[in-house]
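FORM 7B: Structural annotation worksheet

SECTION A. Query
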Amino acid sequence: MSTLAELSRDEEFLKELKQIVLKNITNEQFGVVPLSHEIGMSRSHLYRKLQLLTGKSISNFIREIRMVEAMKLLRKDVGSVSEIAYQVGFNTPSYFHKCFHDYYGYPPGEVKKMNDEATKEVSSILVHPKNRLFSFLYQKTMVIWFVAILVIGLMIIKYTNNSSKAGNQIKSIAILPLKPLSKDKDQSYLASGMHDAIIGELGKISGLRVISKTSTLPFSENTEQTLPDIAKELGVQAIVEGSVFISGDSIRLQVQLIEVFPKERHLWAQEYYEQISEVLSVQSQLVQNIASEVNVNLTTGENQMFTQKRRTDKETYKHYLRGMYYLNKDTQEDFDKGMVHLKKAIESDPADPIAYTGLALGYAISGHGQNSKKHAMIRAKAAAQQALLLDENMAKAHTALGMVHLYHEWDWENAKKEFDIALKINPNEEFAHAHLAWLYLLSDENESAIEQATLATEINPLYPTYQLWLGWMHQIIGNHEKAIAEMEKLLEFEPNFSFAHFIIGSVYYDQGKYLDALHEYEKIGWKNDMILSSIGAANAQLGNEKEALEIMNEMESISLMEYVNPTYVALLQLALNGKDSALVYLNEAYQDRLYPLPWVKCIAPFNSMKKDSSFIDLFQKMNLAL
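SECTION B. Predicted structure
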């Protein structure tokens, strides 16, 4: 498929979208949902495609068309400003006035004046023959220049197309989910696990950005989108497609590499047929072949790593793949099932590091966050250390160890060391980038925090949690406009990801807009201790002491049945009863080494305590400067 064909298809798509909006332009209710329905795409799919083609959200795309049509009608002087506002789908002239001014930089009433001035200028030009002659010569010159540029452009395209692959280094790539060639359900688990493993291996190449598995999964059964569409959505130059078939102790892997930009062309294809015990060496060989085809130069260390002969026990590897398959699912039941398979992999071969690595990451994930499991981090550390004892080049084991140091041991120096090692082994290790960002936030290295958080979103662009974390960091740092923009983008992409309202609400809380904060918090469809404390604190700041006390009592009642994090209680106590009450709960959190206590130093509501000697002492005990 040629580049011109791609452009033509995209132009046709945008033209069709515009026609749909124009057809419904008088309908003030016509927005994101109706447009998605009429074009036959999901909101998230349409949002991503519009972002790629125009850089606009769906609502901005619609509003821009309304603005352009409004300008046409105003220039034709077909009615008053109010009448034209209704004709282009605005139910109030005042809102139309605001949107028009924001878009054009002047109010709609100025258009008639500008038209009158423009008419005078055109009339004066028409009555002077010299101006007509100048216009003719100018147009003729421009045509000559256009033809010359077109010829030069065609020569460049021809030269580029005839150049060798060495001139076309590919720097970004996505591996689509492998297709299992057997109808056996068990094969789909193994295909998914191998897909993840190959991404992990390819990610070790420092000169290549490799898209995370999570972002490629939506295209596992997508028959509508072409390869250029997928590549644009993921922001890559090349795509790897493949299939896998496992029979007994043997595995057959078929892969092909397609360069999508600047033009679509098939670069390479190969079939690998080996015993399952040799699958790790097959993966290394596959990565070397892809690196060669995309013209990425491997470092000496990378060459040594990929040429090393590696074997694994077949049952160990199958359990490992099944374990990682379930571990990557969203439910607690699947997560637990994945951990069981990883333990079976270790039982099958206690000398294989890959299962220990998976187990370490699983424990580290379950030990971090709002609903962390007791003792999970201790088990994560033990599994990670065992994995690294067997093979020091297991990037995910270093990441898991970094998470233990960061969230459980509060050992900032060793956390940084482990994340750095993980990223040296695998520059595309998304977990390391994402959690390193939170470490940088603690050390007040805000630019580095945003950089790492952004890298995580680039490696896994369709994973909403990373986009949420990026917006959250902007909120904490004080980049309020960017925080809200990130969350609005996330909500348009994932309307049910209601935790984004917590970030928007926290921006308003930081700005002292407590009523707006409360409205955002109440949009969240569920309530945990963190959200309840924020709702209570906003009520307290508004003077609604009765409501705040009711929430405090509710949290105390909940604590009789399930765990309530004292760090969050401290926020509500600070708003209700002041610093001393908050400090009691912060010290309780310190005794149990609870997340997210260290990050309290970054949160604006606690700024009032930063001169308190007891507060300073608390953070000095954590080796953190305020």
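SECTION C. Observations
The longest strand covers residues 265-275. The CA atoms of residues 19 and 25 lie 10 Å apart.

SECTION D. Sign-off
Analyst initials: ____
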